[in-house]
Design a protein that fits this description.
The protein is α/β, with parallel strands linked by helices. It contains 11 helices and 14 strands. The longest helix is centred in the middle third of the chain and has 29 residues.
Length: about 325
Amino acid sequence: MSVVVVTGASAGVGRATAVAFAREGARVGLVARGSDGLDAARREVEAVGGQALVLPTDVADPDQVERAAATVEDSFGSIDVWVNNAMATIFSPFIEITPAEYRRATEVTYLGYVWGTMAALRRMLPRDRGAVVQVGSALAYRGIPLQAPYCGAKHAIQGFTESLRCELLHGGSKVQVTMVQLPALNTPQFDWGRSRMPREPQPVPPIYQPEVAAEAIVWAAHQRRREHYVGGSTVVAILGDKLAPGLGDRYLARTGYESQQTNEPADEGRQDNLFEALPGDRGSHGRFEREAHERSLQLWASKHRRGLAALGVAALGVAVASAIGSARGETRR
């Protein structure tokens, strides 16, 4: 029975991921700030056969993260998988963001991953086993307007993870560090993230359900692959940025504002969770149920790429053999 820690477990991708691990029978440490969401997540984990430990924690505080890790090991035993997922953001033009807001988003979304990784490695390295999964985004490669703090943090996580991976390889460690780059998802992020946009924020289509992300994260924790892309849109965004970044800049300058807003005027009384957790349980899903896909063909292909490659080689062999046979027949004539 594996022991897993998931940060940002009270809602969204973190919540769906905790439940997905629980379906495998895992003992799950639930790390987040909101007690209402954590309690609801615990009930969901237990309902599918897992065990849960609620750990109210602000991941921006390294001492709190370290205490959460120690509590998990005291209660459940050695941590096998640590999933860094907690995030905070501001939907706003960069120039309108205050230094305090930017610092807070960065401390949660970037440094929260650093402190989580540090706490995990303190325990995994002496045992020479375990996996750290960094929940990333296509925005770790391709920045978009109106999300400078989030994009900056995801880029930082990408660079941090690559640096750390090199160090682990240098030391011959068997601890695995991987990053899962996600597409747009139907989560409560768009309901409780701080926003200064004139209309309500939305994920840029195509949109996927958080269970798609959870499936990828659980699978990644059991593989030795350095990085995983989820969703065709993620592949297009990352490869497009590598091939034609300037074209991407101009395209997003033209479309990036409209595509991140619904037609609904912004709620003037909107509350957000940037500095304090909001009361209540938001669950895993946001308000984009109609638009969200429940499966990703690209994820399926990624999980089965060896089999697909073998089929491709076999098909090529058949085609070559057929061509040779045809050529011989023509020669005899």
